[in-house]
Specification:
Layout (H helix, E strand, L loop, with lengths): L18 H15 L30 E5 L5 E3 L2 E3 L1 H14 L5 E6 L5 H13 L4 E3 L3 H7 L3
Parallel strand pairs: 1-4, 4-5
Antiparallel strand pairs: 1-2, 2-3
């Protein structure tokens, strides 16, 4: 009786010894073949200053300041108002500036969103174009209101 010794064949596997070499060669290849464009940026020419004695004096646009309080009240240009008087006041300001008047809305802490949305709805209904709600940091930096 003869014993048969069976040998197991080693499992075939893909050699990964050269993976790092291949990756390095690919990186070098792409670095060499990549086109680096040196852009100049946007070219523009500033208008020359004209010395015209009849230049128009530009008037500063004053914004309408609306400040909402936590209690539910609000002021418009530091004057306490109710909704109807605010509508009339802001409508006059908008009509005088062809609806380009800036409107800045400042809210105290914890003002209910409903109060802000109500004011925004009124202003959008009046076709106000330039409405801004500055953040606390912007108010502190600019000291606007």
């Amino acid at each position: 009786m003869a014993l048969k010794i069976s040998r197991k064949k080693p499992a075939s596997e893909v050699s990964t010894a050269s993976t790092a070499d291949i990756a390095f060669l690919l990186i070098v290849f792409f670095m060499v073949t990549t086109v680096i464009a040196a852009t100049k940026g946007i070219e523009f020419k500033l208008p020359k200053e004209e010395k015209n004695p009849q230049q128009q004096q530009v008037k500063k646009l004053e914004a309408v300041h609306i400040k909402l309080f936590q209690s539910g009240g609000f002021t418009v240009d530091k004057n306490p108002m109710n909704i109807p008087s605010m509508k009339q006041y802001v409508q006059q300001k908008l009509e005088s500036s062809n609806y380009n008047k800036f409107i800045i809305i400042q809210c105290e802490d914890n003002v209910p969103y409903g109060n802000l949305i109500e004011i925004l709805d009124i202003l959008y209904g009046m076709k106000a174009k330039n409405i801004a709600i500055p953040t606390k940091r912007e108010i502190e930096e600019w000291g606007v209101l």
